[in-house]
Amino acid sequence: MATLRADADRPPPLPRVVAVQDREHLGEEAGLIVGERIRSALADRGRASVVLSGGTTPRLLHAWLVGNFAGDPLPVDRITWYLGDERWVPANHPQSNEGMARETLLGPLGVEESAILSWHAGSGDPVDCARRYAEAVQAHLGGAAPDIVLLGVGPDGHTASLFPGSTAYLPDGRQVPTSRDLPGTAAAVQGGNAPGWRLTLCPGLLGSAREVVFLASGSDKVDAVRRAVNGDAATPAAWIRGERTTFVVTRDALGSADTGFGPEVQRA
User: Fold this and answer.
1) Distance between CA atoms of 185 and 130, rounded to whole angstroms?
2) Against a cut of 0.70, is the pTM above it?
């Protein structure tokens, strides 16, 4: 399992909030952060690990990465790609997070199969699927932390497949409320706001990352983003804090100046 920070018992620093004009600029701003961190990891350790997010907003980031690395290609043979969460559907299903990532990022970059950790969702038992994925993640990370974790924020405050009011089914057979203290590396999730079975990496693993980047756009995200940034304990997106955490949000997701953001907001 990934090694947690030595100061994990201390409150992490407040995240940065970077406000961009629109969705196009969101992809660019996030891409600059991700590209910098990948190149830094490759320079420092010769390898990089990236945990991808599902949903529609990451497509903007993927398009920017593919376009900007076309002339200066990444050494994709030295990058391992993980999926932070998945729906209980196979990778060729239209709603699959993995399928979206393959179509918009991994395929265009020419990533080899050996560098993609698939959940292999949609067949068999979801809890056993979570167990196998946890073992694969632990084996590939080898006790290290991910370099980059990409996440979104739902209108209800969920991130990855950590849904408010849901139940996590752990590989050891326990069923526990989904919470900040969810043990282990991966879990199957059901109930609460979760639409059917979902698979997710756990907060401890996600929050051990060197770089966590949240992407959010849309006026329906204003309250959830505010709660996540300010550390509301009932908001799953507030549970994940890496060594450095940045929320890249469009202006409509930021809302007006009186929405109660604690950190200073940077305008990109």
Assistant:
1) 9
2) yes
Beta bridge partners of 257: none
Residues 131-188: tens digit of each pLDDT: 999 999 999 999 999 999 999 999 999 999 999 999 999 999 999 999 999 999 999 9
**Cβ–Cβ under 8 Å, residues 145 and 210:** yes
Report the distance separating Cα 222 and Cα 228, nearest Å.
10
CA neighbor of 73 nearest in space, from 101, 47, 39, 27:
39
Residue at 95: amino acid letter: Q
Q: Residue 135: in which H helix or E strand, if any?
A: helix 126-141
Q: pLDDT tens for residues 28-67?
A: 999 999 999 999 999 999 999 999 999 899 999 999 999 9
Specify the length of the chain in residues: 268
Single-letter amino acid, residue 70: A
Q: What are the structural domains, with CATH classification, of the chain?
A: 19-267 (3.40.50.1360)
